[in-house]
Description:
single chain; ten-stranded antiparallel beta sheet
Amino acid sequence: MQGEEKLKEKLGDPSSHKATKDKSAVAEAMARQVRLHFVSAFVKTSARRADATGSGYWNLYLTWKGNTMLKMIRICLIPGVLVSLGLCGGCTSEEKKEARENVTTIDFTTYAVGKLPDGFSTAVTDGGQPGTWEIVDAKGTKVLAQTNTDETDGRFPLCICDSVSIKNVEVSTDFMAVAGKVDQAAGLVARYKDKDNYYITRANALEDNLRLYKVESGKRKQIANATLKVTSGTWHNLKLEIEGTHLKVSYDGKSIIDADDATFQDAGKVGFWTKADSVTYFKNLKIKNKEKE
């Protein structure tokens, strides 16, 4: 049919796309195919009605309705296609998934105060009491907080996003160091295997520094260090990027640490980390899948 052929020209024929291993290209091709399927089905159904009625009204109706449906399908179906491909693999259905650049952003505004968000689990490295991870109201904004003030110096509470396992990843968060006599630390974990094996970067408001560590067999070993001002009671951004054996850490939008380490080579989970009696707020968790296939 002419109407269907015009829609094919407008949308592009998915069958003409070359095979690609790039997930975003695959997602776009698949989304295009889904759009074409639904719009084509509508055109065929409407055409049968036009044949039955013999009315020229349907030609105008098809043009208008086809464009309207195309917009609706783009809005409603593309995110679902991307999620089904695993490009937006977040922790729960409550998360705000960004169908862009393989990014998932989790903010905690939709979760109930006083509870651990669904899809997260907690652990502790080394010793001391387990962390208390819960949603709190921070002056009108819901955030994830570690609130247990056990002063054990070698205590490292963890809060892990369990349904994400990525090798090459960029993970970031907005955090606030709130309180702590022994420490005021905020950290991000990646390539997490278990509570005794992972990479971690952390900023410390009492020490005014930024460090990158590996925790191997329960022992923390420093990879790199940088001195900078970390103010408590203020929101800051922390980001950890890992590709292959290359690790980068950024603080408030500036690249600070650039290092290499080959200890952990497999995919792993991501999450949050604190130390000792640190009371720390985390506003969000942004995860970017940087896998190259």
